[in-house]
Design the sequence.
């Protein structure tokens, strides 16, 4: 994957652009080299690029003014929350303004009567829960970066987390936004009543990866905190048995709050790293949470334990809160644990139909042999969202390329078995060139026509999500240059 | 006016391409049960998609179902029910309310008209359940959007846009929906209460961990539906008893709310109003309702009235749709919530991105849209 080379005409106007932005946001323009280095990428760490200039507005009026300025001067805009995107969604452009929204970090309203919170885009995901937990509420979507990631970024990426199967993604917990278009106009989409009536433009904005406009305020639903949570650990001697167990639990009418699978390699790495107490010598474990009122949780835990044992698992329950936390800490340490085994790591994010789990895991093990690279699997088993972690050493000749090909082959496999390229991390720059493996030319053309309705000049986050675009003026005859060799030169972590 | 019946996506493509070439407009019709909802339209031809019928695939353990859009909702409900599952948005049956037969509505119609029942208070509206679709756009191209898995963020979430778009953006040819396990038991509890008090009680239950799948108010009664397995459900009923004193009643009351049954034999216009739940009790006396009931803890109000309401709705942070009214009223009144100029411009842009020639159901929602 190659990023487009910067527009020299814009680079030549840099002084003028910086001055223009300083007039709009006097105390929030970063233009020196050291300052810009702090904003030169996101959690797709291998890819770095300094922005033309970074602007950090404090008010929505400033956001509007910056967008109008960018529009009038035909300068690309790259929005950024906390910079935790795993797909390069916030990767700056040498010829683009980086619009950082982290200073807009006020919670504007907490409305318990209507079970919602109104927040500026720079408020962190966890801060919303912190603001309402005293009253027994929480905000359900919990991406693992929730301590840092912002609600604006969550809306842009339609972020997920461990609890999506029961509680949905960001889009299912989002009631409304205030939204600024590229020409600086404000729109209100949805509200405390949700998105009803005309076209569901709110639904389109969620997960649009910064390509349609900038969210300056989000209204999200809060949930009453479940009084009881219990955790089961089920250990399996074969992967298909674990897959069967997941299918049987779902078919048994239970929707666990979380259901995570880790394979043998992952268990070994995690045990070596933090010894959470997973059983050794097994092919996989499922870590399962049930939450709700006590009798319902007790019933679900009892039934799931029986189902797991019928699938040949050794089952035990966390005996107290400390053990429960330790078991989950082990799962959450999968990234650093694998990271210890090699200098570099790639994290994939495909979703597959759950029934394909055993065959996909078997095929990935074969690929690992073919590519001569280690990997492990952690997996949101409830919703079929795979996170294969490929380990490699970028200093060894050819390993990065092999790792990238391995990763691309995994995602192609996900699509082949009826799944999708990304379950929660987004397309960004990382999977951009793989889009044609999932979508045909007419599929992509329809999405791009929608983009044109919001941003005809293509100034919002260009180079993300879609392979090369032609101009919007030919709407209806747009040509997507698909079929290029995916992942040609894409560095990943 | 021709009636074009289609039985496959390829036939839809042919019909749309011909309409394009001959500059004709199409009214897409499934079972035709909701033709009286929306602004009256005069299209050149009718595109009958009721022949796009049948379940394409269904694996209960995947928690999703793929069907052709002309499949009756009742057929889908029966299949899911036989497997202990259901549609989370629990669409009601608006047939009798709109003066046509019951149990005929299609899944494509339910999605396109954003029809939601009681369980939506817990599981969300139609928009939260359409995972993917295939459709033919105004360019005469068949395309797909979304995916056939429960968790997907690949590309724009076009399925959201198709929900509640009344067929103005294209012709659906296949839909993939999330489904949910249906608990084995369901109990409905009732208490007589004044509107303000009854609606406040519903919100109290809504803010509790009881995970109620029905929170309605009708005929002076607050109604609560709880579901679960036997033992857990007993505990939920006991917990509910700490919030108020209830009597147990028949489950059918929630179906009646979802179907707008109480309005079926009245002549007033019927409005469906979405609003912040805590404003429900405030708006009722203001709106001049001859009769009304509430669903979704007050987040949805059904209102029989003959007064214009969009302005009042907006004042209370809500959005109204004129669900039933005589054709002459619908021709002159605003059926869907009025959009401000910026949002209307974007709405027009979105319509043009899918249907630049205005082939599909044009004018059904707004002038030219």
Sequence:
């Amino acid at each position: 994957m190659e990023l487009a080379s910067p527009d020299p005409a814009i680079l030549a106007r840099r002084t003028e652009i910086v001055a223009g932005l300083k007039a709009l946001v006097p105390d929030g323009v970063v233009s020196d080299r050291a300052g810009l280095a702090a904003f030169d990428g996101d959690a797709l760490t291998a890819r770095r690029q300094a922005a033309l200039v970074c602007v950090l507005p404090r008010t929505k009026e400033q956001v509007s003014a910056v967008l109008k300025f960018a529009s009038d001067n035909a300068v690309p805009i790259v929005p950024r929350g906390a910079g935790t995107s795993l797909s390069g969604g916030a990767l700056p452009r040498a010829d683009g303004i980086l619009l950082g929204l982290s200073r807009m970090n006020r919670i504007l309203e907490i409305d318990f009567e209507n079970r919602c919170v109104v927040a500026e885009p720079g408020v962190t995901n966890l801060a919303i829960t912190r603001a309402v937990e005293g009253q027994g509420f929480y905000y359900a979507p919990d991406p693992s970066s929730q301590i840092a990631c912002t609600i604006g970024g969550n809306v842009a990426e339609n972020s997920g987390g461990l609890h999506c199967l029961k509680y949905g993604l960001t889009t299912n917990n989002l009631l409304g936004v205030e939204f600024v278009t590229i020409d600086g106009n404000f729109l209100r989409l949805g509200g405390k009543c949700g998105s009803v009536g005309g076209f569901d433009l709110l639904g389109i904005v969620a997960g649009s990866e910064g390509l349609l406009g900038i969210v300056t305020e989000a209204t999200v639903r809060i949930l009453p905190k479940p009084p009881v949570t219990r955790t089961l650990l089920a250990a399996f001697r074969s992967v298909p048995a674990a897959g069967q167990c997941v299918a049987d639990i779902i078919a048994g009418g239970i929707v666990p709050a979380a259901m995570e699978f880790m394979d043998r390699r992952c268990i070994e790495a995690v045990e070596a790293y933090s010894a959470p107490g997973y059983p050794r010598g097994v092919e996989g474990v499922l870590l399962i949470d049930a939450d709700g009122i006590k009798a319902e949780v007790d019933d679900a835990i009892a039934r799931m334990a029986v189902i797991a044992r019928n699938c040949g698992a050794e089952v035990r329950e966390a005996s107290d809160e400390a053990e429960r936390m330790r078991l989950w800490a082990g799962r959450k340490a999968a990234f650093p644990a694998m990271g210890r085994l090699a200098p570099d790591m790639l994290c994939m994010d495909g979703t597959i139909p759950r029934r394909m789990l055993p065959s996909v895991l078997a095929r990935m093990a074969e690929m690992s042999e073919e590519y001569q690279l280690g990997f492990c699997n952690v997996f949101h088993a409830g919703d079929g969202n795979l996170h294969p972690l490929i380990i490699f050493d970028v200093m060894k000749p050819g390993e990065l390329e092999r790792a990238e090909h391995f990763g691309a082959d995994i995602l192609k496999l996900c699509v082949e078995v009826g799944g999708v390229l990304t379950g929660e991390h987004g397309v960004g720059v990382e999977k951009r060139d793989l889009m044609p493996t999932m979508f045909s030319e007419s599929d992509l053309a329809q999405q791009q026509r929608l983009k044109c309705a919001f941003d005809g000049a293509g100034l919002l986050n260009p180079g993300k999500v879609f392979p090369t675009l032609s101009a919007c003026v030919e709407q209806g005859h747009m040509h997507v240059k698909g079929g290029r060799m995916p992942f040609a030169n894409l560095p990943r972590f | 006016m021709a009636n074009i019946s289609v039985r496959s996506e390829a036939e839809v493509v042919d019909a749309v391409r011909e309409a394009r070439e001959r500059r004709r407009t199409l009214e897409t019709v499934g079972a035709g049960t909701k033709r009286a909802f929306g602004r009256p339209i005069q299209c050149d031809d009718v595109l009958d998609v009721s022949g796009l019928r049948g379940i394409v695939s269904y694996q209960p353990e995947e928690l999703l179902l793929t069907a052709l859009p002309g499949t009756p909702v009742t057929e889908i409900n029966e299949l899911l029910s036989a497997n202990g599952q259901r549609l989370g948005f629990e669409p009601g049956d608006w047939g009798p309310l709109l003066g046509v037969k019951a149990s005929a509505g299609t899944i494509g119609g339910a999605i396109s008209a954003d029809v939601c029942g009681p369980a939506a208070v817990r599981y969300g509206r139609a928009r939260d359940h359409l995972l993917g679709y295939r459709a033919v756009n105004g360019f005469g191209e068949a395309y797909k959007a979304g995916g056939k898995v429960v968790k997907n963020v690949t590309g724009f979430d076009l399925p959201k846009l198709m929900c509640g778009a009344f067929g103005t953006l294209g012709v659906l040819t296949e839909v993939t929906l999330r489904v949910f396990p249906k608990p084995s038991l369901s109990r409905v509890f009732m208490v007589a209460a004044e509107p303000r008090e009854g609606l406040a009680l519903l919100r109290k239950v809504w803010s509790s961990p009881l995970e109620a799948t029905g929170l309605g108010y009708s005929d002076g009664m607050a109604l609560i539906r709880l579901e679960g397995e036997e033992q857990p459900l007993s505990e939920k009923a006991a917990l509910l008893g700490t919030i108020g004193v209830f009597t147990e009643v028949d489950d059918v009351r929630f179906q009646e709310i979802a179907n707008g049954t109480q309005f079926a034999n009245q002549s007033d216009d019927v409005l469906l109003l979405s609003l912040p739940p805590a404003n429900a009790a405030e708006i009722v006396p203001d709106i001049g309702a001859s009769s009304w009931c509430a669903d979704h803890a007050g987040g949805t109000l059904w209102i029989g009235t003959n007064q214009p309401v969009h302005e009042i709705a907006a004042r209370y942070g809500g959005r109204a749709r004129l669900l039933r009214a005589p054709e002459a009223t619908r021709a002159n009144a605003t059926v869907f919530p009025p959009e401000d100029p910026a949002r209307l411009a974007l709405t027009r842009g979105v319509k043009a991105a899918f249907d630049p020639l205005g082939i599909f159901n044009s004018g059904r929602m707004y002038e030219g849209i």
Summary: Residues 341-354 of chain B form the longest helix (14 residues). The mean pLDDT of chain B is 96.
